[in-house]
Design brief:
The complex is a heterodimer of chains A (about 90) and B (about 350).
Chain A: E1 7-10, E2 17-22, E3 27-33, H1 36-54, E4 59-65, H2 70-84
Chain B: H1 2-9, E1 16-20, H2 26-38, E2 49-54, E3 60-67, E4 70-76, H3 85-99, E5 106-109, H4 114-119, E6 123-128, E7 132-136, H5 141-150, E8 159-164, H6 171-183, E9 186-191, H7 201-213, E10 220-224, H8 236-239, H9 244-266, E11 270-274, H10 280-295, E12 304-308, E13 312-313, E14 316-317, H11 320-328, H12 332-338, H13 341-351, H14 354-360
Parallel strand pairs in B: 4-5, 8-9, 8-11, 9-10, 11-12
Antiparallel strand pairs in B: 1-2, 2-3, 3-4, 5-7, 6-7, 13-14
The chains are: A alpha+beta (about 90), B alpha/beta (about 350).
Chain lengths: ~90, ~350
């Protein structure tokens, strides 16, 4: 999926994450988390895996995590990308 | 489904989030003024939208204003704080701003609010202690601007910088650029990008490029100022009227960005500015420049500030405002004596063409 417009998904509430995606000619991911020390690397992995499944190869992805579980982070990334893209979401890939 | 989840969150804990347009919802706007007043904050008249929070009794407990891409007038009733009210307000604001095509936001607030804004996804940019902090809502903002800027690095032991609004580019500006160029090995010219002037940003930029090109030097590079050099975000009071103290605080934020990030990226050692007898805001900015670029504590070396005497024509200095006054009085001959060729051709074509004269009459 191609990110063609800026979009966000999620909230800043505890156990959630706010994901913001912006069009760009390169892929960059920034994660900030209240549990950065323990789970920062894992959150990044989840974001990377989700983007790979969605076929996103370009975009600026910023994640503000408030202690969300993996599937919440994945869902928020999917949500933001779906809003930012004109391509249909391929549910089978997920 | 995500939308429904978020909408549901908006009404829990007996707090109601809503938007207020200052020009339309006058009753709600009065309450916002009241809240901000109790917090010792004023209201800028360029705010187009507020997001507010009310408690179960309908009492206004928090507000946040949007002016262009800048968030300001963030306020929260001390009794209501700690309940994540501002977080809820910010979440709504994120979506409201995005609906208006503004994803990249800046926040201008009291230093005491820095930590809460950082917890809401903002990255710190600059602070005038005790007065104001500036943040942006993305980790990709300033770092990417600086990366692009570093592609335009010019070699030299002494590297100068000039920031111009150039509304429009005059012989005075060109004199400043020429004088600066005589004292440094390389010179960066930043043209303010904000569209708040008579001449549109695009045209101002191109006229500076064309006017500077006449000097025939390869040691000078013209930049669009973008959002980090005298923009509505970094220096709101350049574009809206406000008290002198606030103008100074805003100038401090803008100048710190220059001292700590933009200057070091380009290896700037000297900044040049024209003396400013006519505009009080610009004059105050020049005074602040000495403080923030030379004296204020910073991890980066001082940037020397040079005030260059304005070039005069007849009794008065050449200035963009004088050119605009001549536009008003339709005095093309006077304009021709004050501006470089490209600016003159542009003004003649856009303001003195046959067509515009006939439509006027």
């Amino acid at each position: 999926m191609r990110i063609v417009t800026e979009a966000i998904a999620g909230t800043l509430e505890s156990s959630d994450a706010l994901v913001r995606v912006t069009p760009s000619d390169e892929l960059r991911i920034e994660v900030r988390s209240t549990v950065q020390a323990q789970y920062g690397a894992r959150i990044r992995e989840v974001v990377e895996e989700t983007l790979a499944k969605l076929g996103v190869i370009e975009g600026l992805i910023s994640v503000d995590d408030k202690g969300a579980l993996d599937f919440v982070i994945a869902a928020r990334v999917q949500g933001a990308v779906a809003r930012a893209s004109r391509d249909a979401l391929d549910w089978r890939a997920l | 489904m995500l939308d429904m989840l978020e909408a549901a969150v908006d009404t829990d804990a007996d707090v109601t989030i809503a938007t207020v347009q200052p020009t339309r919802d006058t009753a709600a706007f009065r309450q916002i003024r009241g809240l901000l007043d109790r917090l010792g904050l004023g209201v800028d008249d360029d705010i187009e939208l507020f997001v507010t929070a009310r408690d179960a009794d309908g009492r206004l407990i928090s507000c946040l204003g949007l002016a262009g891409s800048v968030l300001k007038c963030a306020g929260c009733d001390p009794d209501a704080q700690g309940g994540g009210v501002l977080r809820r307000v910010m979440e709504r604001m994120n979506y409201e701003a995005l609906d208006r095509g503004r994803g990249h936001l800046f926040a201008y607030t009291k230093p005491a609010n820095r930590a809460i804004f950082e917890s809401l996804g903002f990255s710190f940019l600059a602070e005038v202690p005790g007065v104001a902090v500036l943040l942006e809502n993305t980790p990709f903002g300033l770092p990417r601007y600086l990366r692009d800027l570093s592609d335009l690095y010019l070699e030299g032991d002494r590297v100068g910088a000039v920031v111009l609004n150039a509304n429009p580019f005059t012989l005075g500006h060109r004199y400043l650029v020429e004088t600066a160029l005589g004292r440094v090995d390389a010179l960066h010219v930043f043209v303010v990008s904000e569209d708040a002037s008579l001449f549109p940003a695009r045209d101002r930029y191109h006229l500076v490029r064309a006017g500077v090109a006449e000097l025939g030097s390869e040691r000078v590079q013209v930049h669009r100022g973008g959002r980090y050099v005298v923009s509505r975000a970094t220096f709101p009071n350049y574009f809206i009227k406000g008290g002198e103290e606030r103008a100074r605080a805003a100038a401090g934020l803008d100048l710190q960005l220059f001292r700590d990030f933009i200057g070091p990226t380009l290896g700037v050692t000297d900044r040049f500015v024209g003396t400013e007898p006519l505009s009080p805001v610009t004059n105050a900015y020049n005074a602040e420049m000495h403080h923030w670029l030379e004296d204020a504590p910073s991890a980066h070396p001082p940037i020397r500030v040079h005030e260059i005497e304005r070039r005069t024509l007849g009794e008065a200095v050449i200035s963009a405002s004088r050119v605009r006054a001549c536009l008003e009085s339709r005095d093309l001959a006077a304009i021709e004596r004050m501006v470089p060729r490209p600016t003159y051709e542009y003004i003649k074509a856009n303001f003195f063409a046959e067509k515009s004269r006939t439509t006027k009459e």
